[in-house]
């Protein structure tokens, strides 16, 4: 078997269209301009049998050699041969044998199963590599937990998510059908596993639920789906207790699960499941990474309480009754305390920025160091993808608190003035600072995105990251928050919408 020559190295779609490919990696720009997704590249080699050509060449060489020998060497005296003896009888055998050789020349290219193609695409695009320093990624534990020789819950859930991801990218109704079937099998098996105390606390069960949440992202059902997995996830995290963060895999599982619970809390306005077992709050005293997650949970709780006060104002016509006056007095005191807690929370974010820099330097060598508010876009520091994702998440929590406080001030100001509650002096000093912090927070988030998606490497150079889908899943809700922020500038909103479009295509 020999390689017949040079074949096109362009992408599959350009080869189908018979146009020249610019061979951009991982996707070519020609397909992007054409308006169709790039189907990627293949490393297939085409082979053909060379038996016929080799035999023909050997026969010709043998004949030429014989003629050359006869012309230079005198043959020994022999009897004269009859004319019919010199007839080329072997030619008939070659003609008769040619159909057999032609049948051997038909080579079928090996085909990969849909399962293998789906798994390879999912791992390549949505699983971040394990850098070995303990910094949490996105499903970086999955290759070590997945067993190719088993058909357990984790393996079936991984296959279901991978098939749906491949369907979104490549199409093919069979992929979608198989994905739905596997999803149903996982749901049924998961209900049985949770009934067992031993199986319920296994890493594979938590990983399976996280994969099902990712399935919701891929299917487009992750926004406000009432059938979320938050209650079950919260129950299992509490059951596993603080010891679950004692291993690298357990810590990453906990952080990813906690992030899912916080997203659920924000979308549904329900802070019931934000801090299972108060694990992040307690351990966060010693670990700034967990403290950041705890601060996000507390922010969501403050937001929920502020929204409750905004929605539960006593009607003005009943303000003269003694009971209403008493409620107003009590509510006013509670609101004072709540507003002070919100300002204290903003101070906590500033303190975290300082402490996180020291923690990163001593714990995660070689990674970018978190900066103070408003310094991300200065270009003085460059970041790895994982650190950039954490910065986006922490800044998004600050943004949630800032815009909730501004919304509270806007809705309460007129009512407070009419009823004689003078908070104007306090808000007059704080309002410009809050609005300025909103813009700085959004600038930091948008400046972090190119690092998170791998468009810029940790040295500050342009790059391409294969697993950009992993980062997109983690920060997509944070960027969506920017697009709906009433206090963002038009240019910030426009940039966020462009980024969000790219993330949605990646997911």
UniProtKB/TrEMBL annotation:
Residues 10-38 form the Zn(2)-C6 fungal-type domain. Signal peptide: none annotated. Residues 57-73 have a biased composition (Low complexity). It holds the Pfam family Zn_clus. CDD domains: GAL4 (cd00067). One of its GO terms (molecular function) is DNA-binding transcription factor activity, RNA polymerase II-specific. InterPro entries: DHMBA_Reg_Transcription_Factor (IPR053175), Zn2-C6_fun-type_DNA-bd_sf (IPR036864), Zn2Cys6_DnaBD (IPR001138). This is Zn(2)-C6 fungal-type domain-containing protein. It comes from Fusarium sarcochroum.
């Amino acid at each position: 078997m020999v390689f017949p020559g040079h074949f096109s190295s362009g992408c599959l779609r350009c080869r189908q269209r018979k146009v020249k490919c610019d061979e951009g990696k991982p996707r070519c720009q020609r397909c992007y301009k054409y308006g169709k997704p790039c189907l990627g590249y293949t490393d297939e080699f085409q082979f053909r049998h060379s038996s016929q050509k080799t035999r023909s060449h050997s026969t010709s060489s043998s004949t030429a050699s014989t003629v050359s020998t006869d012309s230079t060497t005198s043959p020994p005296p022999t009897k004269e041969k009859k004319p019919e003896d010199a007839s080329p009888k072997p030619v008939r055998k070659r003609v008769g044998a040619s159909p057999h050789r032609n049948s051997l020349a038909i080579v079928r290219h090996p085909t990969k199963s849909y399962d293998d193609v789906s798994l390879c695409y999912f791992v390549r695009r949505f699983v971040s590599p394990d850098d070995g320093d303990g910094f949490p990624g996105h499903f970086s534990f999955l290759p070590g937990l997945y067993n190719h020789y088993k058909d357990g819950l984790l393996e079936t859930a991984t296959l279901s998510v991978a098939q749906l991801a491949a369907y979104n990218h490549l199409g093919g109704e069979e992929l979608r059908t198989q994905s739905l079937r596997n999803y149903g099998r996982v749901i049924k098996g998961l209900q049985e596993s949770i009934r067992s105390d031993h199986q319920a606390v296994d890493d594979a069960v938590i990983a399976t639920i996280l994969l099902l949440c990712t399935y919701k992202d891929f299917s487009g059902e992750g926004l406000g789906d009432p059938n979320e997995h938050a209650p079950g996830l919260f129950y299992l995290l509490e059951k596993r207790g603080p010891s679950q963060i004692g291993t690298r895999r357990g810590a990453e599982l906990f952080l990813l699960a906690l992030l899912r619970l916080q997203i659920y809390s924000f979308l549904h306005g329900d802070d019931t499941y934000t801090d299972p077992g108060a694990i992040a709050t307690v351990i966060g005293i010693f670990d700034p990474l967990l403290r950041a997650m705890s601060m996000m949970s507390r922010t969501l709780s403050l937001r929920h309480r502020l929204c409750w006060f905004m929605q539960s104002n006593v009607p003005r016509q009943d303000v003269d009754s003694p009971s209403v006056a008493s409620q107003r007095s009590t509510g006013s005191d509670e609101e004072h305390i709540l507003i002070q807690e919100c300002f204290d929370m903003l101070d906590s974010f500033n303190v975290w920025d300082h402490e996180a820099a020291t923690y990163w330097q001593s714990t995660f060598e070689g990674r970018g160091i978190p900066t103070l508010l408003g310094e991300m876009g200065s270009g003085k520091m460059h970041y790895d993808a994982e650190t950039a994702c954490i910065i986006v998440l922490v800044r998004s929590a600050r943004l949630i608190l800032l815009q909730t406080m501004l919304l509270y001030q806007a809705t309460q100001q007129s009512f407070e003035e009419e009823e004689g509650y003078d908070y104007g002096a306090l808000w007059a000093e704080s309002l410009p600072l809050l609005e300025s912090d909103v813009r700085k927070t959004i600038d930091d988030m948008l400046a972090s995105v190119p690092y998170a998606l791998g468009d810029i490497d940790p040295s500050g150079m342009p790059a391409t990251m294969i697993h950009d889908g992993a980062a997109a899943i983690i920060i997509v809700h944070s960027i969506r928050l920017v697009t709906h922020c009433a206090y963002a500038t038009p240019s910030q909103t426009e940039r966020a919408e462009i980024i969000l479009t790219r993330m949605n295509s990646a997911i």
